[in-house]
Amino acid sequence: MSCLCITGADIREFGAKMSGPPLVPMIHMIEAAAKPVVAAIEGVALGGGLELALSCHYRIAHSKARLGLPEVTLGLLPGAGGTQRLPRLIGVPAALELITTGRHVTAAEALQLGIVDEVTDQNAVDAAVKFAQSVEGKSLDARRIGTFPCPRPPDLDAVFEKVMKEVRRSARGAIAPVTCVQAVHAAVTLPYAKGMERERELFSTLFTSGQARALQYYFFAQRAVSRWSTPSGARWDTSKPRPVRKAAVIGLGTMGRGISVSLAQAGFSVVAVETQEKQLLEAKQAVSGMLERDAKRRGAPLAHGNIKYSCSLKAAADVDLVIEAVFEDMALKKAIFRQLSAICKPGTFLCSNTSALDIDELASQTQSPELVVGMHFFAPAHVMKLLEVVYGPRSSPEAVATAMQMGKKIGKVSVAVGNCRGFVGNRMLKPYLEQAFFLLEEGATPEQVDQVLEEFGFPMGVFKVSDLSGLDVGWKVRKADGLVVPDSTGKSARIQGGRRYSPLGDLLCEQGRFGQKTGRGWYQYDKPGGRVAKSDPWLHRFLEEYRARHGLVARRIDQQEVLERCLYALINEGFQILQDGIAAGPEDIDVIYVLGYGWPRHRGGPMFFADMVGLDKVLDRLERYHQLHPDVPGLKPCSLLRKLAAGGCPPIHRWREVIQKPHSQL
Ligand SMILES: CCCCCCCCCCCCC[C@H](O)CC(=O)SCCNC(=O)CCNC(=O)[C@H](O)C(C)(C)COP(=O)(O)OP(=O)(O)OC[C@H]1O[C@@H](n2cnc3c(N)ncnc32)[C@H](O)[C@@H]1OP(=O)(O)O
Description:
The protein has 666 residues and is an alpha/beta fold. Helices cover 48% and strands 11% of the residues. The strands form 3 sheets. It has an 8-stranded mixed beta sheet with strand order 9-8-7-10-11-12-13-14, with helices on both faces. Strands 1, 2, 3, 4, 5 and 6 form a 6-stranded mixed beta sheet that branches. Strands 15-16 form a two-stranded antiparallel sheet. Ligand LNIPZVSO binds at residues 7-12, 23, 44, 46-48, 51, 70-71, 74, 76, 78-80, 82, 204, 207-208, 220, 223. Belongs to the enoyl-CoA hydratase/isomerase family. This is Peroxisomal bifunctional enzyme.
């Protein structure tokens, strides 16, 4: 008997010398053993752990155990017989689903699927001993999965064709899911030994791929961000969070509703405040609907009772933490922070869901600026996994720790970032969007730019995203910044403050084209609120007229230029953010971009991507583009990038040494 709680191969060992006995010969030995081997599974049996269990003759799982083959999420496939044994045990469709998604299953589901033979609430080892005694003397012939014929679906080709199509669509360029399908196909079409050879071959291809490196980097990055630190020396391991039981959400628009749902679902007592009675009623209905739908989907109890609704800020008097989620209007937010500071009990943390505004300016309205931090959620707030926790110069370590912990409790990945316009995510978005606009001026179309970005792996190109989130959002910000002004000839100015500026987005807004909500934006939709973007001849004519008006000659722009100008401008801002100390390390930026902005996970994140491309190459291309566009400061390589390149392009895990020691050359 063997007792298992194995998370699979030690990923840190990949690429280094691996210790311990090699797994594949070991599992063959176990399966061939003459004595019955029973696996007792407690905790988790994942990856190589489950593959080891599959080589045993019987499997007993504790009811709280979780099982799965998550290798695909690390850019791999189950490489110790998992792709050959699982379909033999539970059939091809179920095995394909588990292997291509990497989904973990509960012990109950594993029993239902036939992965385990028994589930117990008692000690799994004791149950397995008992089980072993009950099968004593029985033949093991029918228990060695490797000897089973693989069930062959009658419509084999159609099954695999359908799965492959679906997997390719959802993989968005990730190769591991597609390779997993190929490995399972080998289980059906080849004898076991040949199937194992094929599995090994495919595993080796993935193992040495850049995507596996990216996904494994990302796995650790997502865990590393919880070990936050700030330039003033506050740290995760020396800052104690304060307990929060009751929280208030101020403003019940789309974001406030999503935040309320997240808090209620996590068991917090919530006070939801919206000052207009009509909006409050609407919000109450909407939040109830969201909670009901979600409870139904998850088979979880309803969290209605946790939320109290009120029209008055005074209802927040006794809460431990407030999240303000009103319109993105500094004057309004300041007024609310002033009132909250007077209303709330001493020690209440005051947080803002602002996506770009100055946290310190808000803190300055309160009696206790050390209690103020940003909690920037991403829409839809009850779905998106990311939370930017923004510390201002006066935020206390305790306030940061409390917001970080709160994020974790509501199931978010919280990333601590410094206070600047747009924080990390939205600050990097600005040069990216700017390049997309400039490309249109120079001859590209929204379709072309979006196609390049979607082929890179983004779920949607920049113009489709802009239509989805509403062009008016950025327009309001640009107007507030004084950017939306005509030049001396009455045309929209293309230079603002000595820098190139594209008024294209403003001109569309002036035409009432706000994107999906108005049925027109960079694309056209069948009706206001329509979702399917269609190319719009009006937009193409508009671009031609615009270029003619401004004396711009359209040129052919290739895919490489589209990609490099959009992504390298964004990455360059990422280096500036690291240099400014707004993010503590590249992992913070990468997690924000993967979880908040659709950056393809199999490319690790923008900073990891820069590392993969080669910092010297990124620098070289930025220098070239900056020469061609000297009026675009976003293309001027940041000095940290120069320094890293001059220091021999150290690998990403060594960048912090350079960032933390300003004079280090490595
Ligand atoms: C040409 C070359 C050919 C090369 C041939 C090489 C031959 C190799 C032979 C093939 C054998 C293949 C074997 C197999 O098919 C491959 C695998 O098994 S890959 C691994 C699969 N397992 C996983 O993906 C599990 C990953 N882990 C998790 O999902 C979670 O960590 C968890 C187990 C569910 C626990 O979650 P939590 O409780 O929330 O805890 P954390 O996630 O915070 O983790 C705590 C801590 O542990 C670290 N950690 C977790 N799993 C691993 C791991 N598999 N390897 C290394 N480290 C792991 C995690 O990072 C945390 O540490 P921290 O980062 O915080 O320091």
